[in-house]
Every structure is written in structure tokens, then in C-alpha cells.
Specification:
Distance between the termini: 60 Å
Structural class: alpha+beta
Mean pLDDT: 92
Largest sheet: 13 strands, mixed
Number of helices: 10
Radius of gyration: 20 Å
Shape: globular
Number of strands: 13
Strand content: 15-25%
Helix content: 25-40%
Order of helices and strands: HHEEHHEEEEEHHEEHHEEEHEH
């Protein structure tokens, strides 16, 4: 009989909101608690200097990763790690993150792999801390594994950046028999993308649909700095009120994965740069469905933000999504200014 690693055995229990306190304080406290739960060798494995190039070494494919994976933690340490994750995410975001981890068990069955397989491995999700929580010096942390890569950077008691933020799901919809059949982790991201496309009139769709061919992945991949040659598609300002409502629901589906203070922080930044400058673009098949030749891609693109959604692989049943800050991924611009002002660099 196959032994399935469950969320319970990993210590990834149901979401319980952290204590009501500033998110930066809660996150710093959770990082310290996590690090204090580790022995000397584990702590060495889990930590890097903040200026280490490892901070930019991110990807969303199955691979060996730096940091301390769940498989090398005891129950207490796993609880501390997941408590840290809860300080950053909303209930919606935490539910998605833990479901993505659990989806590795489905992939083991789909691909007929043994229960102890380490390629599709719900225990191969690593926590890494960069620097030490401080009120004066920058620090950060990440969780990363297959289809999940979340990054947080802090400076002067404030979380200054929460990107890149990658979430994916393979399969996008579980179609094998069993208790997970019908499961769609990123259901809203899919449904609202189609809802917005189908709400457009013919002239609007001519602007929004920039290609009949779907790319085979998110365009920016795992590049250290995300960029596109130009903004394309239909502008938010050219949508009707009802269309803008769907657009905002779609946008908030991504921002709403974060704890509310962090979500509001991102929304305030978008408003400052101008919501009217955001654009919606679509590539690929315009009707939902699976199979050869199918594939759907959309993006929300503005001066400071890029959100990409791609569902093209595995006969259009393999979803990748990413949120990138085009000006300060990894908090780089603010950190550069900090070093210049504080250290004369």
C-alpha cells in the first residue's frame, strides 16, 4: 500500500490567524522563533547573509534547494516554519500554499511514482532566512519548492517587498479518481480571467487578445528582474464599470493571498502609479477546456506590476502564476537607496 505524506504528518495544520500586531513585528518574531527552534547545523543550513546571491536564486521547478526543507525538521520546527508563513499570508493564500505542497502527492499517483519518491516530494519545501531580523538593517526570508516560491524583504520595521510570488498547480484540475478529484487550487484565477475576457465587446477583445497562440509558460520565467518590451492589451480606463469590477476581482484574487496589511500596501502602490495605467492582455484559446492545441495565457501589466497566468502544459491542465514588482522585486531599489544613505555605498 502506498504511504502518502499528508498535510497533517507535515504539521501543516489549518489556518489560525496570528495575534493582532504589526505584520513586520509578527514576522520578525516568527523568524526568531523558527531560528531558535533549530540546532546549530540546521541554523547554518537555513541562513545566509542578506547580500548573498542565493537570495536571487529562485525557481518553481522540482530541484534541490538551499535552505532547510520540511523533511529535515521535527514537528516543532515545522510548526514554527508554518507559523512564519501564516504571518505573511491571508487564510486564502495559506490555503493555496499548503494545497500546492499537498498536490505533490497527487503527482506521485498520476505519474505512478513510489511513495518515497523525492522528485514529487511534499517535504521538499525549504525555508531560508537572509540576514537577521533587525530594526535598522535589511533582512528577509523565503519559502520555496515545486510550484511555490514566496519572498519577503524587510527594512526599518516595514515589509518593503513581497515579490516574486509564484504559485502553480499541476494538475490544474485533478481528474483522476479519488478524494482529490475535481480539486482546483487556482480556480478563481482561471474563472475570473475568462469572465473578464468574455465580458468584453468585439472591439475591446481585438485590443485585449494580442495573440491567438499561447506561450508555453509565463514569459518572464524565473529571471532575476522581470521586464517586458511594452505594455499591450486593453487598458483599465477603456473598460466599462462592470468590466472594471471583474478586473478588480481578478487583481484582488492575487493581492488577496497576502495578509491584509501587505495586500493593502500593494494596492496603495498601484493607486499611486495609476490604476488606469494597468492593462489586461490575453493570448491563446478563448474557450475553456483541455486537450492538444488548447492553452490560455493572460497578464495584468502596469508601470510597477506584472501578473502572469499561463495554462498551457499537460494539455492545458498545468497552471503557473506569478506576481512581480517591476521596480522593486526583492526590495532592490529601496535597499540600494538604504545602502547609499546609510553606508555610503
Amino acid at each position: 500500500m502506498k504511504i502518502i505524506v499528508t498535510l497533517l504528518t507535515l504539521g501543516l495544520l489549518a489556518f489560525t490567524p496570528p495575534k493582532k500586531e504589526p505584520v513586520s513585528k509578527a514576522m520578525a518574531s516568527a523568524v526568531r522563533n523558527f531560528l531558535n527552534s533549530l540546532d546549530t547545523e540546521q541554523r547554518k543550513q537555513a541562513t545566509y547573509p542578506f547580500d548573498s546571491d542565493e537570495r536571487f536564486n529562485w525557481h518553481f521547478v522540482p530541484r534541490e534547494r538551499k535552505g532547510l526543507p520540511l523533511k529535515q525538521m521535527n514537528d516543532k520546527q515545522r510548526q514554527a516554519a508554518m507559523t512564519l508563513l501564516k504571518t505573511a499570508l491571508s487564510e486564502q493564500g495559506y490555503t493555496k500554499a499548503t494545497a500546492i505542497i499537498d498536490m505533490e502527492n497527487v503527482l506521485r499517483i498520476v505519474e505512478n511514482r513510489p511513495a518515497n519518491d523525492t522528485y514529487r516530494d511534499p517535504e521538499n519545501y525549504s525555508f531560508t532566512v537572509f540576514g537577521e531580523p533587525s530594526e535598522k538593517e535589511p533582512w528577509g526570508w523565503r519559502i520555496e519548492g515545486h510550484h511555490l516560491s514566496l519572498h519577503f524583504s524587510s527594512l526599518t520595521n516595514k515589509i518593503i517587498d513581497m515579490t516574486p510570488a509564484f504559485m502553480g498547480s499541476n494538475p490544474g484540475e485533478v481528474r483522476i479518481e479519488g478524494p482529490k478529484k475535481g480539486k482546483q487550487i487556482l480556480k478563481q484565477e482561471t474563472a475570473l480571467g475568462y469572465a473578464l475576457l468574455n465580458a468584453l465587446n468585439e472591439d475591446q477583445r481585438k485590443k485585449a487578445v494580442i495573440s491567438e497562440t499561447c506561450p508555453n509558460d509565463i514569459v518572464t520565467s524565473n529571471k532575476r528582474k522581470a521586464s517586458l518590451d511594452k505594455q499591450e492589451g486593453l487598458a483599465y480606463s477603456d473598460m466599462t464599470g462592470s468590466q472594471q469590477k471583474i478586473f478588480m476581482e481578478l487583481l484582488n484574487t492575487y493581492l488577496g493571498n497576502y495578509q491584509i496589511t501587505l495586500a493593502n500596501q500593494q494596492m496603495d502602490r498601484l493607486k499611486e502609479s495609476g490604476l488606469d495605467k494597468l492593462m489586461f492582455a490575453w493570448m491563446g484559446d478563448r474557450e475553456p477546456g483541455f486537450g492538444p492545441g488548447k492553452g490560455q495565457y493572460y497578464r495584468i501589466h502596469g508601470p510597477t506590476l506584472l501578473i502572469e497566468y499561463d495554462n498551457s502544459q499537460n494539455q492545458a491542465n498545468h497552471i503557473h502564476t506569478v506576481v512581480r514588482d517591476l521596480t522593486k522585486d526583492f526590495g532592490e531599489d529601496l535597499l540600494t537607496e538604504h545602502y547609499k544613505n546609510q553606508h555610503g555605498k
